[in-house]
Write a structure and sequence with these properties.
This is ATP-dependent RecD2 DNA helicase. There is one protein chain. This protein is an alpha/beta fold. The chain has four domains: about 100 residues, OB fold (Dihydrolipoamide Acetyltransferase, E2P) (Beta Barrel), CATH 2.40.50; about 90 residues, Arc Repressor Mutant, subunit A, CATH 1.10.10.2220; about 200 residues, P-loop containing nucleotide triphosphate hydrolases (Rossmann fold, 3-Layer(aba) Sandwich), CATH 3.40.50.300; about 200 residues, P-loop containing nucleotide triphosphate hydrolases (Rossmann fold), CATH 3.40.50.300. Helices cover about 40% and strands about 20% of the residues. It has 27 helices and 26 strands. It has a six-stranded parallel beta sheet with strand order 11-10-12-13-9-14, with helices on both faces. It is globular and about 95 Å long. About 40% of the residues are buried. Bound molecules: adenosine-5'-triphosphate. The site of adenosine-5'-triphosphate has 15 residues, from α15. Adenosine-5'-triphosphate binds next to α15.
């Protein structure tokens, strides 16, 4: 494995490792230089990169390039490294007689070098019997050989990964997954990476495969492309399965192996293999990632279990109605008929669904349910009591906070309730919930996998109340759980329609309801006390926005209360550009101001930022908005790393530079991200260039984020188009799983909207699959839906 000679290198002894990130093996340390082909003339240099084991006082050779870090000055960024093997007689003797090899003294060490020469280490690595002549006994010899190879395997693997073209971060991730077996695994099947290692897509694996001589219609290549394409298509659409025909069409084009005879047959064989391996499930021409299919089944089963184990309530309807009267008196409210029905049903059924637009009283009902539940079941409302058995949760921190404030009881994110970490480990988590009443708010945001984990955790005898607005955007992750549950008609459901929010001047809520009804008329664009429309094209959006924001600050609006919401990241009117534009208006760079940069983004004190992942340990979650309150430069702190201090609604979080990828500017955020949050003033630019994204539920979700003022900006037709376009239904089979599990006879096709859906796709695939004698229920033989209960693949 000769190293390319044109690369810059340093050979030297590691002196001090002053930073290590166990997550990705990133390290920073200084070395005492022995040799280099650079013009660096000091005796030491700082080296950075991802490394396996690095030991102080050991000698290594690092290859990479010099970088000029704005804060730390010149450093060497290593993209490969190799422990220098001791190669002189003297060094080898001292190596073998070191404390690493107990039982070998100087004499034996000399003997090894005499016998095996200066390549002693390589020889031992190649031939585990090379030390037999020492007659140390089998066990001792084995221990020495293992020690030598363990010392060198990590470096070798990482070095080889680097030769394969993986950068340091990916190499580290791959090594973490496969360990010392990495090279074996990769040569066996490079496409397994697509399934096993986040960040490796088909293209990447394909490059590696090519180097290993795996090309064309190799079954491993076909498998990799199928896995990648299913995941890509699911992410694109939010569906829980993909159409087999479409999948095969797209995979054929990715493989670019048109000359292959019988490519379709080979693709179907690949599909069959993935089904047999338990990664996919094929049913009626639909192809599922098995975990999603299992999730749908498991949800249906858990709901059935909750329903079946529910015992009669310990109170009469009469007592319930009497209690409601008390609550009406206490809360000074008179529930309308639907609200009353909602409260009654929720208290007397195992599972209850409540949906309604803004201001229809969802929060009001949650309060009533909690209060009546406690009274009628003689349950405590004291969270510190051992008997307290009410769990309130929502998918976002903000929504949970709102729930907590309105009920006066503890409410938390679903992740926190379940003890999830927001990482890949969640997929294997099987928590249990020992509450008696579970209420979830903002249910429309809960995706299939999260809902599976949640509902699987519920114990027999628990009452479950799911509250949300079914007309909002569905979850970011696959599925449309809340709509599917409602549409299954398997559970008592109340749809709240009456708007109760009494605000003389408010027309926003009415507008939201009109949008939801599909009403397209002039009133949308009329200027009212609490909303207005400013027509302009995408080029003018940044300028118009700057003016609005300047005006809003003149009128006393704090930028924290003003939220710009947009559908897309790209383009003049896209999120990325608008963030920079607004930042320069409200928080411009001035001489002597502190500023730090990462990628194309600059951060300054007072900048509004959004958190992009879930970090339960820091109590900050995806979508939470905060403000930068401090910038600590590396030279100013003892850790020698740049830090940002961010205030997320009273929770101060310090983020090291390496974590800045988890935030972005938040003057403008996506409408998806804003789900579950409300803002005093919303500015909503929509332009025709975004037509691919414009749907009624997107506009509806955006408009309903605004509490006091709404300013719509952009192309009139973009708004009109949004209201008209309802083509947002996701393809899922949760409803069907519920029908099967609950033994509900499915409605005839004409009653559903099937004619609008591209059914033809599945039929075609079904034919292909049948012709190729793959059973449509392949992988499902001898499996009943009950097998999906709790058990995870
Ligand atoms: N039956 C009622 N009579 C009078 N006022 C009501 C009634 N129901 C709800 N309200 C009031 O209407 C307003 C909106 O109710 P609530 O906040 O419960 O609605 P919501 O559906 O949770 O709205 P959002 O989703 O926008 O928060 C509140 O001020 C509430 O007190």
């Amino acid at each position: 494995m000769a190293m390319a000679s044109d690369k810059q290198y340093f050979v030297g002894t590691v002196k001090a490792i002053f930073f290590e990130n166990p997550e990705n093996l990133f390290k920073i340390f200084t070395i005492k230089i022995k040799k280099t082909n650079t013009d660096w003339d000091a005796s030491d240099i700082v080296v950075t990169g991802s490394f396996g084991e690095i030991s102080e006082e050991e000698e290594y050779r690092f290859e990479g390039h010099m970088v000029d870090h704005p804060k730390y000055g010149k450093q060497f960024q290593a993209d490969s490294y190799k422990r220098s093997l001791p190669n002189g007689r003297k060094e080898l003797i001292s190596f073998f007689s070191s404390s690493e090899f107990p039982g070998i003294g100087k004499k034996k060490a000399e003997k090894i070098v005499d016998e095996l020469g200066n390549n002693a280490i390589e020889k031992i690595l190649q031939d585990p019997n090379a030390l037999d002549f020492l007659k140390l006994g089998e066990e001792k010899t084995k221990a020495i050989v293992e020690q030598i190879s363990a010392n060198h395997q990590t470096e070798q693997v990482l070095y080889q990964l680097n030769n394969f073209g993986f950068g340091t971060t990916l190499s580290a991730r791959i090594f973490q997954k496969y360990g010392v077996q990495t090279l074996e695994k990769l040569t066996e099947d490079p496409y397994q990476l697509v399934l096993d290692v986040k960040g490796v897509g088909f293209k990447r694996a394909d490059e590696l495969a090519k180097k290993l001589g795996i090309t064309g219609d190799d079954p491993r290549r076909i498998k990799g492309a199928l896995i990648q394409m299913v995941s890509l298509m699911i992410n694109e659409t939010g569906d829980t399965y993909v159409s087999g025909t479409e999948l095969i069409k797209r995979v054929s084009s990715v493989l670019n192996a048109n000359s292959t005879p019988d490519l379709d047959k080979k693709l179907l064989d690949g599909l069959k293999k993935l089904v047999n391996d338990g990664a996919f499930l094929v049913e009626d021409g639909r192809v599922y990632d098995k975990t999603l299919s299992d999730s749908e089944w498991s949800i249906a089963q858990s709901l059935k279990m909750i329903t079946d184990t529910f015992k009669e309530v310990p109170f009469s309807l009469k007592a319930l109605r009497k209690e409601l009267k008390h609550i009406e008196r206490d809360f000074k409210v008179q529930y309308d008929q639907s609200q009353q029905k909602a409260i009654e049903q929720s208290l007397t059924h195992p599972i209850f669904l409540l949906t309604g637009g803004p201001g229809t009283g969802k929060t009001t009902i949650i309060n009533a349910i909690v209060s009546a539940y406690a009274k009628l079941n003689d349950a405590t409302l004291d969270p510190s009591s051992e008997d307290y058995a009410i769990a309130l949760a929502a998918p976002t921190g903000r929504a949970a906070k709102h729930m907590g404030e309105s009920t006066g009881l503890p409410a938390m994110t679903i992740h926190r309730l379940l003890g999830l970490t927001g990482t890949e480990d969640d997929e294997y988590a099987e928590p249990t919930l020992d509450c008696k009443l579970l209420i979830i708010d903002e249910m429309s945001m809960v995706d299939t996998k999260l809902f599976r984990t949640l509902i699987d955790a519920v114990q027999p005898g628990t009452q479950v109340v799911l509250v949300g607005d079914k007309d909002q955007l569905p979850s970011v992750g696959p599925g449309q759980v809340f709509s599917d549950l409602i549409n299954s008609a398997a559970f008592p459901t109340t749809i709240l329609k009456e708007i109760h929010r009494q605000d003389e001047d408010s027309t926003i809520i009415q507008l939201a309801h009109d949008i939801n009804e599909g009403i397209v008329d002039e009133t949308i664009f009329q200027n009212k006390a609490d909303r207005s429309f400013i027509g302009c094209n995408s080029r003018n959006v940044p300028d118009v926005l700057s003016q609005i924001i300047n005006k809003s600050s003149d009128k006393g609006f704090d930028i924290a209360d003003v939220q710009v919401l947009a559908p897309m990241y790209r383009g003049q009117a896209g999120i990325d550009n608008l963030n920079v534009v607004i930042q320069n208006v409200v928080n411009p760079m001035k001489p002597k101001r502190k500023e730090v940069s990462i990628g194309n983004t600059n951060y300054r004190i007072n900048d509004k930022v959004v958190y992009l992942v879930n970090s339960p340990e820091q109590n900050v979650f995806n979508g939470e908005i905060g403000k930068i309150i401090g910038i600590l430069l590396a030279k100013e702190n003892t850790d020698h790393v740049d830090k940002l201090v961010i205030d997320f609604d009273g929770n101060e979080v310090t983020l090291d530079r390496k974590d800045w990828v988890n935030i972005s500017l938040a003057y403008c955020t996506s409408i998806h991200k804003a789900q579950g949050s409300e803002f005093e003033m919303v500015i909503l630019p929509l332009v025709n260039e975004e037509s691919r994204m414009l749907r009624r539920n997107l506009l509806y979700t955006a408009v309903t984020r605004s509490k006091r003022l709404l300013i719509m900006v952009g192309d009139r037709s973009a708004f009109e188009r949004s209201i008209k376009d309802q083509s947002n239904e996701r393809q899922t089979t949760l409803k069907e799983r519920i029908f099967t599990t609950f033994k509900i006879k499915q409605k005839p096709a004409e009653e559903t909207n099937d004619e609008e859906k591209p059914v033809q796709d599945y039929r075609l695939t079904l034919d292909m699959i049948m012709n190729n004698s793959i059973s449509p229920m392949i992988g499902m033989e001898n499996v009943t839906p009950f097998d999906f209960m709790k058990k995870r693949a």
